[in-house]
Amino acid sequence: MSATPARSGEAAPRVSPGPVRRKVFVVVSIDTECDKGPGWKTQFPLRFRSVTEGVPKVFSPFFRKHGLVPTYLVSPEILQDPECVAVLRGIEGAELGTHLHGEFIEPEADRDAPVTSTPQTAYAPAVEREKLKNLTELFASRFGRRPASFRAGRFALGPRSLAFLDELGYRVDSSVTPFRTNEYPGGLSSNYWGAPLAPYHPSAEDPRRAGSLRLLEVPVTILAPAMAGWPSFLLRRLNDRAVSRAPLRRLLKGPIEKMWVRPLRGTPDQLVAWADTVISTWERSSTPVLNVMFHSVEVIPAASPYTQTEGEVRELLGGLDTLFEHLAARYAVVPMGLSGLSEGLRA
Question: Rounded mean pLDDT of the chain?
């Protein structure tokens, strides 16, 4: 029904505004690697279907449909394959960054390793820095520009990783997994309990703390609602093992629920509810950020531990469909690549 225009001299009728939808930055960050399999075992000879088929046939149309800007964080072996590079050069509406699995780049490369299990934190500082430098220069040689965004393989930041990335000119890292301890062979771990959920400029000494690096840390979206209000200095004294013990479980009246907004970590309805919970906990004075991560190989059957059949791939994409459609209907979604987010937050 059209509104009746006001007569001359009469006040125009007042129109009640609709509800103002909250603005939310939505980032999709994809670890982009060679095809793997059960136990994350590398397929030999190396296969790259998740890039040569998954990117043009699955990801590009999917993200166009939802109006999102994926960030492909590319591991060294992808950059060493001409067909993969050609595919990535040809995509539009996406960001490219880097992702370190150190087995595939010098020094101390081990390209025949059955599993890319060496965490970045295991390398001596000089070796780690040289690997990051070589990865950065390899990316620049393939695409004619330096990468701006990065994620450590297996989220395994070392004590000097962020400082090295800052020196190399990266604008964004996305390796921090709040409320989570990542454990690796040899007793190593990367413990991110106490890290902020919102993006922050980190300390060079401790990735969980705010500091003075130019680099922006954009954590993966994981929330433990029962502990979200705890002081960060207390959370930094915890790890996954500590919070699973009986005293803390009794204090919290049961096991601690972690909401990881990531496909296949919950049902589609759970992903929606988790995203709403994350957004509701954000300070009203700032814009919430959802950083939804997964692996490129998850859209190829039997190329990861997660999706073994076409049906399971459809389940993964269906969960993401439900999540992104809900976000678009309920919020004012602002799609962002990882490095674009640093500019978006400043604006």
Answer: 94
24-346: which CATH architecture?
Answer: Alpha-Beta Barrel (3.20)
Task: Give Dmax (Cα) for the chain.
Answer: 83
Nearest one of 290, 294, 268, 270 to 281, comparing CA atoms: 290
Per-residue confidence band for 343, with pLDDT thresholds at 50, 70 and 90: confident
Q: For 82-89, which contacts have Cβ atoms below 8 Å and span 24 or more sequence positions?
A: 83/48, 83/51, 83/52, 84/48, 84/51, 84/52, 85/142, 85/143, 87/51, 87/52, 87/55, 87/56, 88/51, 88/55, 88/143, 89/142, 89/143
Which one-letter amino acid corresponds to residue 193? W
**Residue 321 burial (CB count, 10 A):** 15
- CA distance linking residue 107 with residue 110, whole number of Å: 9
Q: What are phi and psi of 231, to 5 degrees?
A: -60, 145
pLDDT of residue 189 exceeding 70: yes
The ranges assigned to domains in the chain are 24-346
Where does residue 134 rank: exposed (0-12), middle (13-18), buried (19+ CB within 10 A)?
A: middle
Find, among 30, 276, 65, the residue nearest to 174 by Cα. Answer: 30
pLDDT tens sequence across 244-267: 988 888 888 778 899 999 999 999
Identify the band that residue 200 occupies on the pLDDT scale cut at 50, 70 and 90.
Answer: very high
Using an 8 Å Cβ cutoff, are 303 and 49 in contact? yes
CA angle, residues 89, 92, 97, in degrees to nearest 5: 60
Closest CA to 79 of 114, 104, 106, 112: 104
